[in-house]
Amino acid sequence: MEERRRMTYNVNRKVLDEGDLDEMGEKTHTKTSLCDKIKGSMSCSGPRVKSCLLGAFPVASWLPRYSFREDALGDLVSGISVGIMQLPQGMAYALLASVPPVFGLYSSFYPVLIYFIFGTSKHISVGTYAVMSVMIGGVVDRLAPDSNFEIWDNVTNSSIIDSVARDQERVRIAAAVTFLSGLFQILLGLVQFGFVVTYLSEPLVRAYTTGAAIHVIVSQLKYAFGINPKRYSGPISLIYTVVEICYLLPQTNVGTLVVSIVAIVGLILAKELNAYLGKKLPVPLPIELVAVIIATVISWQVNLESRYGVEVVGDIPSGLQPPVAPTLSLFGQVIGDAFALSVVGYGIAISLGRIFALKYGYKVDSNQELIALGLSNSIGGVFQCFAISCSMSRSLVQESTGGKTQVAGALSAVVILFITLWIGSLFEELPKAVLAAIIFVNLQGMMKQFMDIPALWRSNKVDMMIWVVSFILTVLLNPDLGLAAAIAFSMLTVIFRTQLPRYSLLGQVADTDIYKPVEDYGQVRQVPGVLIFRSSATLYFANAEMYQEALGEKSGIDITKILSIKKKLEAKRKRHEKKMAKKAKKELKKKGIDMQEEPNSEHQKDIATIDVDNDPDTSLPRAIILDLSPVNFLDTVGVKTIKSIRRDYGEIDIEVVLACCQSGVVENLLAGGFFNDKVTKSCLFDTIHDAVLYCLSGRAKHQNDDEYTQEFSSFPCPLASQDSKETHF
Question: pTM above the 0.90 mark?
Answer without folding.
Answer: no
